[in-house]
Amino acid sequence: MDTSAAVLLAALAVALVSMGVYAASGARRDADAQRRGSRFLMGAGDFLAHWFLWAVSPVERLAIRLGLTPDAFNFAGLAFGFLAGVAIAAGHLALGGWAIILGGVCDILDGRVARLRQVSSPYGAFIDSTLDRFVEVFVFLGFVVELREFTLGPLLAATAITGSLLVSYTRARGESVGVLCKEGLMQRAERLVLSVAACLLDRPLTAAAHWPPGTLIFWTMALIAFGTFATAAHRTVWIAGRLRAKPAADQ
C-alpha cells in the first residue's frame, strides 16, 4: 500500500469514528446552516453536511480567538484552489484532492467567521463568491490538463467548468432581480465532493480495475458536466416562472 492510499484510509477511519461520535452526541443540526437554508444533495446528504460543520467547529472557534478575518480565509482558499489546479495538472491527484478539501474548509469558515464577528458586508459577499469562481476554474483547468490523453477528456472538463459557472450565474442573476434560487442537485458543495472523490480515488480504483489512469476523473467530469447544465437549465426555468408570475409593477 502506498503512502497516499494509507493516508486516505486513515482519514476515512477518523471520519467514520467522528461521525459515530457526532451521532451519539445527538447529531444536533448546525443553527447557522439552518438559518441560511443550506442543503446537501437536495437534503438527502444533510447529515453529512451538519457533521462536517460540527467537525470543523473547533477550527472556527480557534479562528475567532486568534482574531482571523474572513479575508484571511478567502485568500487562503484561493491559494489552496490554485495549488489544487497545479497539482492536478502535474498528476499529483492526491495532493490536489487534499488541497480542494482545505480550500473548501476555508470557504466555509470565511462566511461563518464573518457572521460570528458581525462583519458581514456586501464586500464580503462579493469577494467570497468571486474568489469561489476563480478556485473552481483553477481546479477544472487542472482536470483539462489531466485528461489530455483522453479523446473527449479536455472537452468534458471544459464543459464542467462552463456548467459550473452557469449554475452560479443563474443564481446570482436571479438574486439581482429579486428571486432567490437554491434549486438543483449539482451545486458547489456537490461539485467539490465529486472532485475530491475523483482525485483521491482515481489512482487506487483504476489500478485495481486495470483501467487507464484518469478513467474515474473522466466519468466524474462527464457527470458534473451533465449535472451542472441540467441544474442551470432548471434554475433558468424556475426563476423565469416566478418572474412571469410577479405583477409587472413588482418587477
- What percent of residues adopt helix (DSSP H or I)? over 70%
Oligomer: single chain
Sheet with most strands: none
The structure class reads mainly alpha
- According to DSSP, the number of beta strands is 0
- As a percent range, the share of strand residues is under 5%
Q: Summarize model confidence as the mean pLDDT.
A: 91
Bulk shape: globular
Radius of gyration: 19 Å
Individual helix count: 9
Order of helices and strands: HHHHHHHHH
End-to-end C-alpha gap: 61 Å
Report the uncertain regions: none
Keyword list:
9 helices, 78% helix
Q: Would you kindly provide a written description of the structure presented here, covering whatever features stand out?
A:
- It is a single chain.
- By secondary structure, the chain is an all-alpha fold.
- The chain has nine helices and no strands.
- The protein has helices at residues 3-24, 31-36, 46-66, 70-89, 93-116, 122-146, 153-176, 188-209, 215-245.
- Helix 5 (93-116) runs antiparallel to helix 8 (188-209).
- The model has no long low-confidence stretch (mean pLDDT 91).
